Amino acid sequence: MKIGTTLQGIRKSRQLTQANIAENIMTQGAYSKIEKSQLSINLDQFIPIIIKMNIDFQEFSYILNGYQLSKRETLIKTFTSLEIANTEDLQLMLKAVKDYLVNNPEDQYIYFLQLVYEAFIILQQENDLEKSRQMVAPIWQQLQTLDDWYMNDFELLNAILFLFPFEIAIEMTKTAERRLEKYTDFPYDVSYLQAYFRIDLSLHYIEMRLFEECLAYLEETERKFLHKMRTKTAAILFERKAICLFYLQRPFEVEIERTQRLLSIYKDENTKELLLKEFNLLTGNF
Questions:
Q1: pLDDT truncated to tens, each residue of the chain (286 aa)?
Q2: Contacts of range 208-215, beta carbons closer than 8 Å, 24 or more positions apart
Q3: Cα–Cα distance between 256 and 262 in angstroms, integer?
């Protein structure tokens, strides 16, 4: 579909006239030409027009693409929905990203996704943390130079947080939380990102054997964000608490049971298996 055709379809479905839409923005004649694709529309005109139609840009883009996500949007959605994945899933995602980059080699963000997937695969197949860290280092180097981060940047950093040294991971998390404060009144709740950063940072606390501090950090995260977490995120939180409790020689079985029960309800046997494997690996409980 074309922009003009899409605008016309939405306008008519809203039972609005061209005069209604054009008022205080442009002449009705100019707007009519836009719907007929005889005149281009600039951003200063487009935004107030879709506001009048009570629709946001993301939804307009979805409708424009025939009620489907574009290839790029699909790649980003797949990435931002990723919480835990096996090597086979990661390889499929990597292939999709590489296929896209063949025709869009200038797309830096999608290239960064390629680096992330490659780093994750290396970590799973070779267990080489340093090699994986070097793979994603350019992402952090680039984002460090930016005065502000935006939603995709937060998602990207969160995904690779656990690959960096403890001090850098703490710096990333503090910077992310500070910059996320600007999104307090954002139309969409972004507190899930704060939870993500905290849970990923917990792995560093565990590796540094700061179990008491980690447990307190996770308990605070649970109090603040549990009701807003996705299922897998909550399961990871419970499992990380269990690891801390194990090393603190306190009862940990309840947290493992919470993890297993939650994932069983949603029939997510794959994540259940992966988290149990992580627990056994980090506790030596084979």
A1: 699 999 999 999 999 999 999 999 999 999 999 999 999 999 999 999 999 999 999 899 999 999 999 999 999 999 988 877 789 999 999 999 999 999 999 999 999 999 999 999 999 999 898 999 999 999 999 999 999 999 999 999 999 999 999 999 999 999 999 999 999 898 888 888 999 999 999 999 999 999 999 999 999 999 999 998 889 999 999 999 999 999 999 999 999 999 999 999 999 998 999 899 999 999 986 5
A2: 208/166, 209/247, 211/243, 211/244, 211/247, 211/248, 212/244, 212/248, 214/240, 214/244, 215/241, 215/244, 215/245, 215/248
A3: 10
Distance CA 235, CA 138 (A): 31
Q: Which amino acid type is present at position 230? A: R
Smallest Cα–Cα separation from 201: which of 227, 228, 220, 182? 220
> Which of the 8 DSSP states describes residue 26?
S
- Cα distance between residue 53 and residue 247, in whole Å: 57
The Cα angle at residue 241 between residues 240 and 244, in degrees rounded to 5:
90
Q: Which two tokens stand for residue 196?
A: 């993500």
Q: Rounded distance, CA 255 to CA 25, Å? A: 58
> How many Å separate Cα 152 from the centre of its chain?
7
Distance CA 169, CA 174 (A): 9
User: Which amino acid is located at 261 in the chain?
Assistant: R
